[in-house]
Amino acid sequence: MPAPFSLDVYRDDLARVVQSVFETMIDLQVAVCETPWTHTQDTVTAAVHFAGDWRGAALVECDARQACQFATRLMGIPLPAAIDDDVRDAMGELANMVAGNLKSVLPHGVGLSMPSVVEGSDYTLRVCGAKAVERIAFSSPLGIFRITLVEMLQSA
């Protein structure tokens, strides 16, 4: 069993990764903010899971309007009127880029899953057997969104 690993020391790394991905990939300046992000009825959540010597997941959470704007910026497409496959793909790719860049600060031997995207009204996403390690809200000209990092609990 791998040695215990504490992610609380990686808050700055997570913030740096998110800022870099959003600035580089969608030309969007983002900053950590103290204003809490709240789940709305039109929330979109993209998740990528980590497996191997450390297990957990990285989630990108925003509202549908932001998800559509992220897709426009990432893919260079006209602004979608609603969530569609392009928006789902863009959200999955953003989660994949955040997780992939974060992987460099995690223990060696960690692999990534394919991204998954959940959307709709009034849903809850729970990674079973995990605890939220870090939740960071980010502000941008497009509004506030959140990155959540969860860690799988070690079985006894």
What would your notes on this structure say?
The protein is of the alpha+beta class and 156 residues long. It has one domain (7-152): Chemotaxis protein chec (3-Layer(aba) Sandwich), CATH 3.40.1550.10. The protein is 29% helix and 31% strand. It contains 3 helices and 7 strands. The chain has helices at residues 11-26, 64-75, 85-102; strands at residues 31-33, 43-52, 56-63, 110-112, 116-119, 130-140, 143-152. Strands 1, 2, 3, 4, 5, 6 and 7 form a 7-stranded antiparallel β-sheet that branches. A hairpin with a 3-residue loop joins strand 2 and strand 3. Helix 1 crosses helix 3 (85-102). The longest helix is centred in the middle third of the chain and has 18 residues, at 85-102. Residues 1-5 have low confidence and may be disordered.
Name the CATH architecture.
Answer: 3-Layer(aba) Sandwich
Shape: globular
Indicate the CATH class: Alpha Beta
CATH superfamily: CheC-like
**CATH fold assignment:** Chemotaxis protein chec
Structural class: alpha+beta
Beta-strand content estimate: 25-35%
Write down the overall mean pLDDT.
Answer: 86
Weakly predicted, low-confidence segments: 1-5
The number of distinct β-strands equals 7
Total domain modules:
1
> What are the secondary-structure elements, in order, as H or E?
HEEEHHEEEE
Helix content: 25-40%
- Give the biggest beta sheet: 7 strands, antiparallel
